[in-house]
Write a structure and sequence with these properties.
The chain has 190 residues and is mainly α. It has 7 helices and no strands.
């Protein structure tokens, strides 16, 4: 798939690229999670990253700049940013191995499946709402960890449980959606 500079150089794609680059300072900032002042800095950087995710989609739709490149870079930026933070939280002992693996395996399989489906269809499938909700709930859980909200609290356990359910359900939804598009494409090309 080839992209033109006009397709790449949109404000919404710039925001997605910025979110992708933010993964680097986030990795290092999490080394200072024990410092209360740094918790606020990390929290603000995470909020800024989340804002770029919301804003990039809004701008792309508002200015009719939804591009194939944007359909790739936006979810990739989400997966890299969340992945970096989840890896760091796992290394720090803030999340259990099974949770880390669920997110990692889900995202890797969706990414590989997305490449396969895109190659077969000749276009990129846009992110779906359930996937965005899942990333949002995982993001909220990350923010709760950053803020030091007790993992035994009702709110933490509720968000954690919801994220577990959404990780599984959104993966199943992605698989079903991919098969539907592939089947539809097969019958349309006959």
């Amino acid at each position: 798939m080839k992209f033109t500079i006009e397709e790449i150089a949109t404000p919404s794609n710039f925001l997605s690229l910025l979110r992708l680059v933010l993964a680097i300072p986030l990795w290092y900032l999490f080394d200072y999670l024990g410092d209360p002042a740094m918790r606020i800095v990390i929290f603000l950087v995470c909020l800024f990253a989340a804002a770029t995710d919301t804003l990039d989609g809004y701008l792309a739709r508002k200015y009719n700049q939804v591009t194939e490149f944007g359909k790739i870079i936006d979810p990739l930026a989400d997966k890299v940013a969340v992945g970096v933070v989840i890896i760091k939280l796992f290394i720090m002992g803030e999340i259990p191995l099974y949770y880390f693996l669920m997110i990692l395996i889900r995202d890797v399989l969706i990414f590989i499946g997305g490449i396969f489906v895109s190659n077969r269809l000749g276009r990129v499938l846009p992110s779906n709402v359930l996937g965005k909700i899942t990333v949002t709930i995982i993001g909220i859980l990350i923010l709760m960890i950053v803020l030091g909200i007790g993992q035994d609290s009702f709110i933490f356990r509720s968000v954690y449980g919801l994220s577990l359910i959404l990780i599984v359900v959104s993966f199943i939804a992605y698989v079903i959606r991919a098969f539907e598009f592939l089947r539809k494409n097969k019958y349309e090309s006959v």
